[in-house]
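Researcher: Can you fold this with 6-O-phosphono-beta-D-glucopyranose in place?
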Amino acid sequence: TKDWNGIDQVVLRNPQGASAKVSLQGGQVTSWRNEKGEELLFTSSKAIFKPSKAIHGGIPIYFPQFGNCGSLEQHGFARSKFWTIEENTPDLQPNDFNAKGCVDLLLKPSEEDLKCWPYSFEFRLRVLLGVDGDLTLISRVRNVNGKPFTFSFAYHTYLLVSDISEVRIEGLETVDYLDNLRQRERFTEQGDAVTFESEVDRVYLRCPNVIAVLDHEKKRTYVIRKEGLPDVVVWNPWEKKSKSMVDFADEEYKQMLCVDGAAIEKPITLKPGEEWTGRLQLLVVPSTFCSEQ
Ligand code: BG6
């Protein structure tokens, strides 16, 4: 199907009525809904959906650079490129096909891209909507030939929350982080959970593979499972930064929180023929379910 600006997108559905939308622009998940039709990802009401423009919302992919520490545009080019659908891809794991909805996308560098980043890669993204309404993203980056290359990566996941002041992240306690608001200085998380009362822009390093984001008001917990992604970015722009972003409404920071599975501290190097896989699974459970575990 096409979205409202005519950009191709794929809609995945499971028999229970959950759904996900994946835009070929950016290879980006732009919506994920539960079986009641409730949206679970944030997208700014001011997001600009047009070719070559990164969307503030959903799950943009940051590749091959995180932030602006490098020669490329902020967060790399993958999120602003047009991806293609790949038919008949080989199986990854037998369990993947138990899921009811699945799409495979492919990004390869154009001649123009090779001028900015002269490496031959194939980036395959599989998006799966599971029987429990869970959403899995599997990224496989392959060095096709030529010279070795190095990249950073993040699934920049905009979770929709009811009130940022009532949200807590569990799983990052005692973990070290780099604070982007303090010249990437290194600190250790002291709290028993991460909570929010001002702008936060951090890269937590070598984190556990399961992180929980508890939305107290909605009595809903996002469970984030990751593999091949040691780091976790936590970002909320808060009031001042929100006002400086043209494609983001002033008050929207209250309804969103980015928690990214990422590989940033130690960038990935691939020699010719080598492949890297980074996997993220998102699941929503009622908060009561979590506390009983
Ligand atoms: C986060 C960064 O991952 O992305 C922030 O840590 C940045 O520093 C944010 O502001 C959004 O970036 P962009 O380029 O989508 O506005």
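Model: Folded with 6-O-phosphono-beta-D-glucopyranose in place. The chain has one domain: 9-292.
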